[in-house]
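U., I forgot to send this yesterday:
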Amino acid sequence: MTDAVKIDFAKMDGLVPGMVQDAKTGEILMLGFLNEVSYAKTLETGFVTFWSRTRQKLWMKGETSGNRLRVIEASTDCDNDALLFKVKVEGDGLVCHEGTVSCFTKNIDMEAK
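Result:
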């Protein structure tokens, strides 16, 4: 992983969304936010580190559960203001704090009304 691309943290008051995808299955696992410090920490350690908007501090996903997100590949969108991390999940693979593999488990009815 290299830091050749300049990420635009200015558009969202210092934050960019970071989508996390399982590198093997392609499943979307979660979405979090990164600031410049958490992004640098992610590049340094190779594990996704987010900025907690509610706790106002850095947090590495899996620091307590053991389900850390080891970055296999990273990319940015065309505007350099969103990140995609393809990861290998360490631990038991349950990324969501609700005990599921993915945080995206609540279906929305999209039937025309």
